[in-house]
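Holo prediction. Input below; ligand is zinc ion.
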Amino acid sequence: MRTLIAGGTVVNATGAQVADVLVEDERVVALAAPGSGPAAAFAEGAERVDAAGRLVVPGAVDVHTHMEMPFGGTRSADTFETGTRAAAWGGTTTVVDFAIQRKGEALRQGLDAWHAKAEGNCSIDYGFHMIVSDVNDQSCKEMDVLVGEGVSSFKLFMAYPGVFYSTDGDILRAMQQARASGATVMMHAENGIAIDVLVSQALSRGETDPRFHGLTRPDLLEAEATRRAIALAKVAGAPVYIVHLSTTGALQAVAEARSEGQNAFAETCPQYLFLSAADLAREGFEGAKYVCSPPLRAPEHQAHLWRGLRTDDLSVVSTDHCPFCFKEQKELGLGDFSKIPNGIPGVEHRVDLTYQGVVAGELGLPRWVEVNATTPARMFGLYPKKGVLAPGSDADIVIYNPAASQTISAATHHMDVDYSAYEGKAITGRVETVFSRGRVVIDGGRYVGQKGHGRFLPRKTNDYLK
Ligand code: DUC
Ligand code: ZN
Ligand code: ZN
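Structure of the complex:
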């Protein structure tokens, strides 16, 4: 099967050029000057897709999602079926989700459970990181086994005591283990022990509204934990990747470590670039829609995060997609903010929202592709299969209309959740066509993909360490 995507502006992290993209079966076979000899020869018998006036970009790679994640007595609303379909609608063709080891269980149990949830249900390709909640001799040995199976990154938590929390000693051990196998430790960097004190003090004062979720998780406790994580990684001689970084102070810690040559990396998420503590303080219980951890911050942080994306102190934008319905799920925290399940839906809108950064002059087009696709693929061992349009790479391709306009709404989104954190937001740009391994999944406003098309992706280790 051959497809010729003709005359679009092909954007990779390295630059943009008008080119034809030649696809055979599941792969890109060449980029060619439009109408050139090779393109004309290839066109015979090929399906022709006109991309004139459009951007043609690598399918985006979201390395931070939580489908069907048990949390706070409920589970995140998107299944692998609905969540990967919504991802495709938004131009994301790979997700890396977090399998969870619960305390007292083996890593294997958690990983098997996630394979069972995902297998046969995904519209796009997927991989797994492993959340390690119980660092011990057995789980450290298992980390090496999992790296061999293509699960080459492990998330640890400095937050959520009693659930996912690891002590500094646990973290150091896991980092030492990761160093030996080439794995990357991903860190949820918030000081959960101090946060829990602030939470119980707030509740005892009768401060129960959603906005107190933010006030009890001050930005200093993210900056402190980020510095501590980086120090522990330095002692272990291991790389560290700070997930969902939201504050100027934490960014400064990452920037300093990077300028000293340490293998410290970080991602941020659209919610920290576009939403703020003012959303968490919305009237009545509305703020519950905006409860996630780390919490939404004062708007002053946003300019620093955009700058971090330009300087590469923030290397990746991921979503931390963790949707809970307002009805019945977020409502578990009526009268007690600490019981609101943490998370914001986002897997569908990362490409579009970060494109607003291009429109506003915060990012150039190649950098937009780099933070959404190329760097996440390289950081998590998927490159050059994913994250680039080049001969031999998977034909995961998005045709993007840079001039279209749309309004984000729960009425039209495809995530299985009853609200949008961006309800009514008017944006420029729109995904028109999406290919996953050469197969059309989104065709100008129609989903034509298939559950089960998506395959598990065994991943190599982090490209940036070589
Ligand atoms: N943060 C969230 O908002 N949800 C899930 C877990 C996390 O760390
Ligand atoms: Zn987290
Ligand atoms: Zn997360």
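The pocket of zinc ion (ligand 2) is lined by residues 188, 243-244 (CB under 6 Å). That is the main takeaway for now.
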